[in-house]
UniProtKB/TrEMBL annotation:
S-adenosyl-L-methionine binds at residues 71, 76, 122-123, 135. The gene is rsmG. It comes from Psychroflexus maritimus. Its EC number is 2.1.1.-. It comes from the Bacteria. This is Ribosomal RNA small subunit methyltransferase G. GO terms for molecular function: rRNA (guanine-N7-)-methyltransferase activity. InterPro entries: rRNA_ssu_MeTfrase_G, SAM-dependent_MTases_sf. Keywords: Cytoplasm, Methyltransferase, rRNA processing, S-adenosyl-L-methionine, Transferase.
Length: 207
């Protein structure tokens, strides 16, 4: 928790309060529906909250931006990002109903007004978004196939709309064929060995 304050000094008292509540809410819900591994729940601020917020180090979403979190599970990276950007509209989608139940309970517990949840496969969504965020869902070729056509062409940001994906390890092979991909090592932003191999992959929308 202290780490989060340190890396994001401009958080308001309300945002800090909400982030503080996260551990209790997940510890409680995780006993009923397992969405976070046991080892990770003790390190929820580093492994889930801070990891999710790495995306905020790459891009500050403008107010009014529409962001889709694909395969959100229990709400990562969507929930921490929704706390960080209260004026941005987040849609969190997962194909497993009980995971979305946890998302709904956490959203209610934190009184987040900017989060909508959807229990479906992303392929079935018709809407378009400015950005798609995700972590640990599918290899990039499968993922980009699933979300094809779901990113709006016009951007209000200084960069093109696109995908911000949290990935680990050597991505050389997986990202072959994605010439416009940019890779941001998270250890450049947060000093914790957990982030040693972790990256944010930014994939701008293709024309
Ligand atoms: C390994 S979990 C990751 C959960 C979360 N993103 C995290 O990092 O904690 C992958 C999630 O993706 C969901 N998922 C897989 N394929 C999906 C699809 N096509 N549409 C929506 N959700 C999907 C699964 O149900 C699962 O909850």
């Amino acid at each position: 928790m202290d780490q989060i304050n340190h890396y994001f000094p401009s958080l308001t008292e309300d945002q800090i309060q909400k982030i503080r509540q996260i551990a209790d809410l997940y510890k409680d819900w995780n006993q009923k529906i397992n969405v976070v591994s046991r080892k990770d729940i003790d390190e929820i601020y580093t492994r889930h909250v801070l990891h999710s917020l790495a995306i905020a180090k790459i891009l500050q979403f403008n107010p009014g931006t529409k962001v889709l979190d694909v395969g959100t599970g229990g709400g990562f990276p969507g929930i921490p990002l929704a706390i960080m950007f209260p004026e941005v509209h987040f849609t969190l989608i997962d194909s497993i109903g009980k995971k979305i139940k946890v998302v709904d309970e956490v959203v209610e517990g934190l009184q987040l007004q900017n989060v909508k949840s959807v229990n479906d496969r992303v392929e079935n969504l018709d809407n378009q978004f400015d950005f798609i965020v995700s972590r640990a869902v599918a290899a990039m070729p499968t993922f980009t196939h699933w979300v094809k056509g779901k990113i709006k062409p016009k951007s209000s940001h200084s960069v093109k709309n696109g995908i911000l994906y949290l990935k680990g390890g050597d991505l050389t092979e997986e990202l072959q064929g994605y010439k416009t991909a940019e890779i941001f090592p998270i250890q450049n932003y947060f000093e914790d060995e957990f982030f040693e191999t972790k990256k944010v992959v930014y994939l701008p929308r293709k024309r």
